Amino acid sequence: MVANPVYTYLLADLATNRILEEIRLTNVSFNKPLNDCGTFNGTWKLGAKTAHLDPYDLSMPCRRVIYAFRDDRPMWGGIVWTRKYDSATQTVALGAAEWWSYFDHRKVLPLIPGSPDLTTVAGLSVTYTNADQNNIARGLVALAQTHTGGNILVVPADTELSNIPRDRTYNGWDLTDVGHALENLSNVIDGPDLVFDVAPGTAAPRRVLRVGTPWLGQQGSAWRWEMGGNVASYTWPSDGTRMATRAFATGQGVELGMPISVSEDTSKYADGFPLLELEKQYGSAEDEDTLDGHAEADQQTARMPVALPTIVVRGDVSPTAAEVNRGDDGWLVLPPDPFHRAGFEGPVRIVDMGFKPGADAERVDLTLAPLLDGVA
Questions:
Q1: pTM of this prediction?
Q2: What is the rounded distance in angstroms from the CA atom of residue 364 to the CA atom of residue 329?
């Protein structure tokens, strides 16, 4: 019988990455999404013998980091953003988020000159011309970390290129969040997959940015999940609230000067679907090709009601929780059941991984990429 993996949790200093203390946590849950920010929650029971250092200082939001290890492998890392101490139970509820969350608190700006006046910041800009989209992502993260106090020691995991050039301009007057700029870059047609992650290091895990070329994961892999085998259960939620047959992408401007791109799929009307519209703003996008790409991507993403399947798999059975990663491809087999009368079998891709370490057999929630629902 395979032994259940052991999870351990370390608190570290954000600025220096120095490990401060190993702590015992209960009620732990954390996730690792693709192109988004993962979160972590856990409960720390205090007591005279549970901490060698000051718990108040150890858990300080915005200064401390949590690392989660599965056996000797770092699985998750992020910044402590919230804590709540309960004197009745002597517990601290900790909330953390991956490194992406830090860049949600940063603006796309070059270094700001000393003693700026009221027009200085608005006049600044960051421009990428015919730049590989992977280098734009890395450049945005690197630029944010050149500001005084802004270096949280995130480094690129590699230097691979996608060979997809992009033009991007981020104007000072927009005060675009770095996290939002990364999200927009990943969401355009053929945009790169992006994840902030942890990797093995010497004294502490390394903090890394992984960029796809343009996709991350083990595409075309042999991962196979089958209900009744390594799949314990599944859910199949369907959502039509975000379907759109016509998408508008708006850029920088006001009134008659606002550029608006439109992408529409009229073929759905003959199938009985109504005209459904959505609109998204892309303030830093000015040129027609960029806005067209956003509109097309938004419409394609929302072109049908989608199923958002989640499967609960055994983390100790191949492929194990240590082998699978966000972005990986696989093959899902669901035998006929009361909901899927004919069963389901087809390719899937992992877009989120949810962990709830405990004493029982390890279970991992795998959220799969949206599937077109009701389409043969």
A1: 0.85
A2: 16
Q: Return the closest-CA partner of residue 23 out of 54, 50, 53, 62.
A: 50
- Tell me which residue range forms the domain holding 191: 121-211
List CB contacts of 246: < 8 A, sequence separation 6 or more: 262, 263, 264, 265, 275, 276, 277, 278, 299
For the chain, the domain total comes to: 4
Tens of each residue's pLDDT in the chain, 376 residues:
456 889 999 999 999 999 999 999 999 999 999 999 999 999 999 976 655 689 999 999 999 999 999 999 999 999 999 999 999 999 999 999 999 999 999 999 999 998 889 999 999 999 999 999 999 999 999 999 999 999 999 999 999 999 999 999 999 999 999 999 999 999 888 999 999 999 999 999 999 999 999 999 876 667 999 998 999 999 998 888 878 999 999 987 777 778 899 999 998 888 888 999 999 888 766 678 888 988 998 898 888 777 889 999 988 888 888 889 999 999 999 999 998 899 989 889 999 999 988 767 788 999 998 776 654 4
Which DSSP helix (H) or strand (E) runs through 296?
A: helix 288-301
Tokens of 28: 């732990």
Same-domain status, 28 and 73: yes
Q: Is 278 helix (H, G, I), strand (E, B) or coil?
A: strand
How far CA 369 is from CA of 34, 262, 326, 329, 350, in Å, comes to 10, 25, 10, 10, 6
Report how far residue 187's alpha carbon sits from residue 245's, in angstroms, rounded to the nearest whole number: 18
Domain presence at residue 296: yes
| CA atoms of 263 and 301, how far apart (whole Å) | 12
Residue 228 and residue 315 in one domain: yes
Instruction: Specify whether 326 is located in the same domain as 229.
Output: yes
Question: Can you give the CATH number for the domain in which 191 is found?
Answer: 3.55.50
Q: Is 306 helix (H, G, I), strand (E, B) or coil?
A: strand
